[in-house]
Amino acid sequence: MGVLAWIYLLLAIAGGVLPWLANIAFIREHGASFDIGLFVNLANANPAAQSLSRDLAIAATAVTIWMVSEARRLSMRGLPWVLLSCVTIAIAFGAPLFLHLRERRLRELGRPTNQ
Fold this sequence. Notes:
Elements: H1 3-30, H2 36-43, H3 47-74, H4 79-88, H5 91-109
Helix pairs in contact: 1-5, 3-5, 4-5
């Protein structure tokens, strides 16, 4: 496995852990059930939060479309798991995980990577 694949894997781990630390703090602060309505309201509570939320939503949509088309182009396995992880864990986990799997697939195919 190349250096770039390892970097993507480390980013996936960080992207899974760090958002969920914030989610756990949200759950502790606002009750044991994850109130998605309150979460969305707080994510849009001020212009800075709105900017980040909108930025994330647009970027996540674009990245998801690209992941689906790239996975098809390269005949990659595991895309449903990646997409599920984007929704259940975080896009910050799923996107780097996809890039990790893509690097591995490119090596399998003998195609040059950036590494």
